[in-house]
Design brief:
The complex is a heterodimer. By secondary structure, chain A is α/β, with parallel strands linked by helices. Chain A has helices at about 15-20, 110-115, 150-160, 180-195, 205-215, 245-260, 275-285, 305-315, 325-340, 355-365, 380-395, 405-425, 430-435, and strands spanning about 5-10, 45-50, 60-70, 75-80, 85-95, 95-105, 130-135, 170-175, 200-205, 220-225, 240, 265-270, 290-300, 320-325, 345-350, 370-375, 435-440, 445-450, 455, 460-465, 465-470. Chain A folds into three domains: about 5-110, Alpha-D-Glucose-1,6-Bisphosphate, Chain A, domain 4 (2-Layer Sandwich); about 115-245 and about 385-455, 3-Layer(aba) Sandwich (Rossmann fold); about 245-375 and about 460-470, Rossmann fold (3-Layer(aba) Sandwich), CATH 3.40.50.2300. Chain A contains 13 helices and 21 strands. In chain A, the strands form four sheets. Chain A has a seven-stranded mixed β-sheet with strand order 13-12-14-15-16-20-21, with helices on both faces. A six-stranded antiparallel β-sheet of chain A has the order 1-6-5-4-3-2. In chain A, strands 8-7-9-10-11 form a five-stranded parallel β-sheet, with helices on both faces. In chain A, strand 3 and strand 4 (about 75-80) form a beta hairpin. In chain A, helix 6 packs across helix 7 (about 275-285), helix 9 runs parallel beside helix 10 and helix 12 packs across helix 13 (about 430-435). Chain A is globular. Chain B has helices at about 5-10, 15-25, 30-35, 40-55, 75-110, and strands spanning about 30, 60-65, 65-70. Classes of the chains: A alpha/beta, B alpha+beta.
């Protein structure tokens, strides 16, 4: 794919080795927007806050991984959010100091995302092909857990189109970004509808899903929540796939208490519908297993400092934290729990903990972390090995890891296709009715019956470095 | 310009390549563009330029018998490319200053030691 390459350069009196070592050192000289990373080593997570106009004082987080690191001479970053691209830094000796040159590649999706955010119209011309919407999170704290969503949707659409699309026409995917904000999500969903989408796959927080479902109630558009959720949305134009919180908690309660060697739980998470609903379910379900809830707290998205909360959890004497934080907040919370020594006292069960959030948390801070879901990247099924191989072949070694939150969009698109092949892409009510059956997917067997609930095997997983493995 | 055209124009790899060449070389004639782009000839470049102009991404300047093309200074692509360029350049300037200051501190510490 052709990319636009941007170049910039700057001279500094520091020698190449010294200039290089400032990258990621948190000294205001990170070279690219004061980049953050634990170690400048290949494969490590890196994030940069770019002060792009129109995003308030905070700017937008570019997140990715170190793809190359040659001390004193070169650093290359492969990033996935808010667009896919590469940023390269070259350090060369010059005039007793160092010339630092930067190359940033921008592809079609990056140009599109930026133009849209700068207020330029980017609607496509009318196409006779079926348009399928994907509303996901490219910016804001949620862009961590959705890092691979786009890629997996693209893979599914490629498979669908290789098999003839819908009635001989290729499906065209249009992506919207909710910016981790329900109101923005509604505006983006409306844009997808105007562009001709009759179905929108929603891979965002439940807060955005709920707002979009309400806003599109009269639009004859099917909204599909692809990832784990609290259920409860009704209507003929709404399908909620993904794990349900009560199934996750029932599966995890006993094994996690066994591993913790205790039964006192503290519930902590972001302040929106899914964490609130999950905590309510925890209060109902956990006592059945002999557990006791000793505290509960919610924090707004973007909370930078969790120290008071970690202190409160310590004082509560909890053995287990049920963390319903998501995305960047989840990463910041877990890193702080580790830094403040809370892991000596308790372990964490985080149902929405995914592999790309773990990558940000890092090997050290991830010990004592547990997740519970219907899929992990290392799930040993044959269909999963095939999908992983295709994913790496298409997006490269440093593409964000797959997780239940992202793999679910791949499956959702296939379920949609299974229905649309029979009834066409233009009748969302009939598509919703036809999204039923038994499917063999990378996560195993998924059953969709008339109750609208996806039946699937649920696994308790344990962080092993920056990946998840099945817990024993 | 139709509101939908900018994105359609960018959907084609040759047109993105033309835009990338223009972003780097300020202004080019059709033959200069054709020299730098292997995948299509002069005629192909001309027809892609028509699409890019219609989308408001590229502007044309006539001089005698020749026509020169550049990224439209009022267009969306120029706005985005320039905004990002100044962000990256600004980041390097900030970091370069901090690196020079850190270097000066280290040097004075060595002298005083």
């Amino acid at each position: 794919m052709t990319r636009v390459v941007l170049r910039a350069e700057q001279w500094t009196a520091a020698l190449p080795a010294a200039a290089y070592s400032l990258f990621g050192a948190d000294l205001g000289a990170g070279w690219v927007f004061d980049a953050h990373c634990d170690r400048v080593a290949v494969g490590n997570a890196v994030s940069m806050r770019a002060p792009i106009a129109g995003f308030g004082a905070d700017g937008v987080d570019i997140i990715g991984r170190i793809a190359a690191a040659r001390p004193g001479s070169e650093i290359e970053i492969a990033h996935d959010q808010p667009w896919r691209g590469r940023i390269k830094l070259h350090f060369t000796p010059e005039r007793g100091g160092t010339k630092v040159r930067l190359f940033a590649e921008l592809d079609e999706s990056g140009l599109e995302w930026l133009m849209h955010r700068r207020g330029f119209p980017i609607a496509r011309g009318r196409s006779p092909n079926p348009q399928l919407g994907l509303l996901t999170t490219k910016s804001g704290p949620g862009n961590l857990f959705t890092a691979a969503v786009d890629n997996l949707a693209v893979l599914a659409v490629e498979e669908i189109n290789a098999e003839g699309g819908v009635r001989g026409r290729p499906v065209e995917l249009i992506v919207g970004d909710d910016a981790t904000d329900p109101a923005t999500g509604v505006a983006e969903a409306r844009r997808l509808v105007r562009a001709g989408c009759r179905t929108i796959m929603v891979s965002t927080t439940s807060a955005t899903f709920a707002a979009v479902k309400r806003a599109l109630a009269d639009s004859e558009v099917l909204v599909v929540q692809t990832l784990m959720n609290e259920g409860g949305a009704r209507g003929p134009l709404c399908v909620q796939l993904g794990e349900r919180h009560e199934d996750q908690l029932v599966a995890a309660a006993q094994p996690v208490m066994r591993m913790a060697g205790g039964r006192r739980w503290f519930l902590a998470g972001n302040d929106y519908c899914w964490p609130r609903s999950t905590h309510a379910v925890a209060r109902r379900i956990l006592p059945r297993f002999g557990a006791r809830v000793v505290g509960e707290r919610f924090a707004l998205f973007g909370t930078g400092d969790f120290a008071p909360l970690v202190e409160e959890i310590r004082r509560s004497g909890a053995d287990i934290v049920l963390s319903t934080f998501v995305g960047a907040d989840s990463a910041a919370f877990e890193r702080q729990c580790h830094a403040m020594g809370l892991r000596d006292q308790c372990i964490t069960l985080a149902p929405a903990m995914d592999e790309s959030t773990l990558l940000r948390i890092g090997d050290e801070a991830s010990s004592g972390l547990y997740s519970v879901s219907g899929y992990i990247e290392r799930l040993p099924t044959e269909a999963n090995s095939r999908l992983l191989a295709r994913y790496r072949a298409a997006f490269g070694r440093w593409a964000p890891p797959m997780s239940s939150l992202s793999e679910s969009v791949f499956e959702a698109l296939h379920i949609w296709w299974f229905a649309a092949r029979r009834v066409g892409a233009d009748d969302p009510r009939r598509i919703a009715e036809e999204m039923r059956g038994v499917f063999e997917f990378p996560r195993g067997t998924v059953t969709l019956d008339a109750t609208g609930r996806a039946g699937q095997q649920i696994y308790v997983a344990e962080a092993a470095g920056t990946t998840l493995k099945l817990a024993q | 310009m139709g509101p939908g055209l900018a994105f359609d124009a960018l959907a084609d790899p040759v047109r993105r390549e033309i835009l990338a060449v223009l972003a780097e070389h300020e202004e080019c004639s059709v033959s200069e563009l054709a020299d730098r782009i292997d995948s299509v000839g002069r005629t192909g470049v001309s027809s892609h330029l028509r699409v890019l102009r219609a989308a408001g991404l590229v502007s044309e300047r006539k001089e005698g018998r020749f026509r020169y093309y550049s990224v439209d200074p009022t267009g969306a692509a120029r706005d985005v490319i320039e905004m990002l360029h100044s962000l990256f350049q600004g980041a390097l300037v900030d970091a370069g200053r901090a690196a020079t200051e850190a270097d000066a501190r280290d040097t004075s510490e060595i002298r005083s030691a």
